[in-house]
Amino acid sequence: MNDLEPKHPGKKKSAFSRRGFLQGVGAGTTAAGVLSVPAEAQAPKAIGPGAVPITLTINGKAMQATVEPRVTLLDCMRHYMDLTGAKRVCDRGTCGACTVIMGGKVIYACSVLAIDAQGKQIETIENLTASGKTHPLVPAFVKHDAQQCGYCTPGFVMAAKGLLDRTPSPSYDQVKDGLGGNLCRCGTYVGVRQAVLEAAKGGRNG
Amino acid sequence: MVDYSWPPMNKRRVIGQRLNRLDGPAKSSGKAKYPTDVQRPGLLHAVILSSPHAHARVRSIDISAAQAMPGVEDIRVMSPAGTEIQWAGAEVAAIAARTEEIARDAARAIKVDYEVLPHLVKEDDLARAGNRAKAAGEQVTGDPDTVFRESGVVVHEGSYSIPVITHCCLEPHGSTIEYKGEKVEMWPSTQNVSGIGGDLARSLNIPVTNVSVHMDYMGGGFGSKFPADRWGTEGANMSKKTGKAVKLYLDRRQELTIGGVRPSAFAKVKIAARRDGTIVAWQSESWATGGVGGGGMPPIPYVFTNIPNKRLNHSAVSLNAGGARAWRAPNHAQACALTATAMEDLAAKLNMDSLEFMLKNANLTLRPETYRAQLQKAAELIEWKKYAHQRGDKTAGHIKQGLGIGFSTWGGAGHASNCRANIHPDGSVEVELGSQDIGTATRTAIAMVAAETLGIPVEQVKVKIGENSYPASGASGGSTTIGGVSSSTRKAAMNALDKLMDVVAASLNVPKDNLEAVDQRIQVKGNPDKAMTFKAACQKLGVKSISEMGTNDPKNPGGLNSQGASGVQMAHVSVDIETGVVRMNKFVAVQDCGLVVNPKTAESQVYGACIMNICAGLMEERVMDQITGRVLNADMEFYKLAGIKDIGEIVVHMDITPEHDRKGIIGLGEPPAIAGPAAISNAVANAIGVRVPGLPMTPERVLKALYGERSLA
């Protein structure tokens, strides 16, 4: 079963949706709580309430910070690591401006604690132009003017990246489902739909 | 005398091209640094403590426990004892701390004793407003009473409303501020780069020259981000006190509560026409709120202003709720929602096709030919003939389809703007303006105008905006920016080119007037052989750069920009009469806006406005609770915005014609953000056969209109 789909046995596989997305986040958090704790720490161990040192693996690099356990992955990246591509907007898992990919899943970084993100591979918008390579989504968003103020755009690009990782040739409806968990205030959806379809086509051809 | 006029349409090489926005790669790769992204050494995080009460007097405020918390660096009391709070969310204190978490803990530790006072937070029933409603004087034109009584006149009476909506900017209001000695560095999220420094300086009582404003990008304003605001002042005060930079932005709840709202509008309308459909009389009793200050009367009847007999009454209702700020096209969406709806209801009563009815009455508008042409174009694009039917879709089944019309007008002349164009001996070109790109692609338009004027590629122009040290340019409000900055850039670039021509004329030994700048060359007009490359011409400057100013004077734009945009929008919807759910099938916008610098980004503006219209037409409203006095949906779960699946098909037709082009540039922010909610309301009425009186068209309202209050019990 694909990582992005809700893990409900017996339930028909559905296209990626907000509901699936939120369930994915829930599953991701649970899994992180169980799997990322080192073996010797299996016994319950209180962390915090003071700041604790943590290490996150972001875009293939180990990054350290000392944060309170209540700090979200999003705030940790933005306030402590100068990774500001992901934006804080609703701050409670509605708008998608903070979308990143963690352990292969598209997640809202505002809804995951930084301490729970340890041991996971985290990919952010910054990775899409890292080491001289540009992901096809970036020029496609430019070509189709899928941005105005641009504040929601990194979230859309990362949700689209997650969609294409999983479904390299999405249909028009799959694009809409895949980006149904992101909100834009300026109204850029028309360009976004075209950009994602074109990036998918480019990926196939190239 | 330099001729600044735009080159003829067929001679333009850059203006009119569908170019990508220049900052697109920075935005779509996450590299664009917004004010909320700014990091400074030792940065403190600050938060605002808001009042939980809609109306209260502060008896006392005790910050001692909060002050004693480790990591808290400064606390400013914004509502000291004795302050009368007028809306929930109002600022009570500001707290700066080492981390945001500590600042929030400290906010919770502040003890405020309030004397709670009576409040009013809902305006839907004017009778309940009592002395909170203030009537403006009655305006009467002609003799409406006599006309309404005439035989042969068909009269319709109805109630219509459009609610308060909030700006819900994705980047919240606020700024990062750093005091350094006497100087202040400010990174605000603003629509007003040249003006916000002065606003902050006034509140701090320091010279404006001490404030440096920096803003490369900003995450949405829509009319709500002009001032430095009280939180800006307190951020600065806390920075001065602590000697550290302070980052203070509203949280999401505050953003939706005190970051600005669009006023509501309600009206009881009486409208009359002769049997042939000619509108002869209008009467309205309207009311509106935008917070404590009430709300002004929208310009009704809208667009069809020349109805000969009118009576207008309006009351401003003062509420204990967060205050109004400009929202794309202030009062126009409201005016359209009160006018186009009543007009279509009257057409239905006359058994007239609403398109025919609008066409018939176009003479009552200021630009009949334009509106007629736009109505016909929009009808063609939405396939009016195919889908039109009398009010109430009579086909079987529970899904009913309908069409509706809205219309708009706006000014949109360019604001006061200054630009400096620099041409350097190495051939590089800079244009500098204290302007801002709020998502409009202002940067791109400026570069295109400079490139067109100088005959060089767009990439060769370095656009410098977002600093108040650059020549002052107006705030981005009222659709004034593209007209203003394009005109000042045109003039500055022409003035700089004129200086460069002096050098080339001497070198080629030809009169300056015979030269033109095209294709990276300065050449004798029409003779590429007698030419010098742009770069070679610049080298002739020696060590001295050219630096020339250009100014757009709104009183004398010289034909470069003007005002008066018209638009027509149509909606095609499907309504499920069992669930009340309205789906967008298609939305059409026909828009003129004079000379279009970049059709690609101009279309983006219109697409965006259409989507905002769909939000406002179907789902967006601030919900107040009279018991607690608070906003019930100050978040993004229940303050509904349309998602990518909610918008249906959108068709944008920009009316780019030589006739419109001759007017010069007309701004495009407001014009397309007006007509949609009315068009959607009309489409729903056409589908289900009854008017849903209040926007937005939520399932609850649709079911209530269909089956009465009891349908929801």
Quick rundown:
The complex is a heterodimer of chains A (206) and B (713). By secondary structure, chain A is of the alpha+beta class. Chain A contains 6 helices and 5 strands.
What does this protein structure show overall?
The complex is a heterodimer of chains A (206) and B (713). In chain A, a hairpin with a 2-residue loop joins strand 3 (99-102) and strand 4 (105-108). The longest helix of chain A is centred in the N-terminal third of the chain and has 18 residues, at 18-35. Chain A has six helices and five strands; from the N terminus they run H-E-E-H-E-E-E-H-H-H-H. Helices cover 34% and strands 12% of the residues of chain A. With 206 residues, chain A is α+β, with helices and mostly antiparallel strands. Chain A has helices at 18-35, 73-80, 137-143, 153-166, 172-178, 189-205; strands spanning 52-58, 61-67, 99-102, 105-108, 121-123. Chain A is elongated, with a radius of gyration of 17 Å. With 713 residues, chain B is an alpha+beta fold. Chain B has three domains: 9-32 and 414-552, Aldehyde oxidase/xanthine dehydrogenase, molybdopterin binding domain (Aldehyde Oxidoreductase, domain 4), CATH 3.30.365.10; 35-117 and 175-249, Aldehyde Oxidoreductase, domain 3; 342-412 and 563-712, Aldehyde Oxidoreductase, domain 4 (2-Layer Sandwich). Helices cover 27% and strands 25% of the residues of chain B. In chain B, strands 3-5-1-14-11-12-13 form a seven-stranded mixed beta sheet, sandwiched between helices. In chain B, strands 7, 8, 9, 16, 17 and 18 form a six-stranded mixed beta sheet that branches. Chain B has a four-stranded mixed beta sheet with strand order 19-27-28-29, sandwiched between helices. At the A-B interface, helix 2, helix 3, helix 4 and helix 6 of A face helix 1 and helix 15 of B.
